[in-house]
Amino acid sequence: MGLAPAAHGGNRTGRIFTGDESGNFLFRALHAVGLSNQPHSIRPGDGLELPGALLTAAVKCAPPDNRPLPAEFDNCREYLVRETGVLGSDSPRVLLALGGLAFESCLSALAETGAPRLRPRPRFAHGARYSVGRDVLYASYHPSQQNTFTGRLTQRMLRAVLRRAALEAESL
Q1: Which residue has the higher pLDDT, 59 or 67?
Q2: Distance (Å, rounded) from C-alpha 55 to C-alpha 34?
């Protein structure tokens, strides 16, 4: 789960993480660990498949200044809860939040689908793993240019978290 469609990426192309550098970075990593059939996402209809994975965002529209307001998170939460429900609520799910705000949204959405609210509240940290009821939540820095150009998030770091999450999902 990401934060929101980028104004010049997912908002423009109609598919999250498509058409911008964040998406290019993410899809290379997804492909490298076997969660995508190709290392790029150009536009809807380009043949991209994500076997066993679903990409979504906490907020469904491009926010002003790339920072959603609390009301935007609240307005979009019902969609996130529904999407989480599509993954099934009868069996454990493995989720990966890309960034701290997406992490907080994941925790809120899981709580709304019946998962316990963890106390103390989990802290976002790259590579962290939390059991939330039957589900598992992993955290990663967001693949924004701010993080990737500075080396805060590298392909190696993202692939490591994706591999751990994918292996755990396979074992459930």
Answers
A1: 59
A2: 15
Rg of the chain over all Cα atoms, to the nearest angstrom? 15
Cis peptide before 120 (omega within 30 of 0): yes
Q: Kindly list the domain boundaries of the chain, sorted by start residue.
A: 10-171
Q: What is the DSSP letter of 1?
A: -
| DSSP code per residue over 26-63 | HHHHHHHTTSSSSS---STTS----TT----BSSSSPP
* pLDDT tens per residue across span 99-119: 999 999 999 988 888 888 889
Q: Does domain 10-171 bear CATH number 3.40.470.10? A: yes
Query: Model confidence at 90, in pLDDT bands (50, 70, 90)?
Result: low
pTM of the model: 0.91
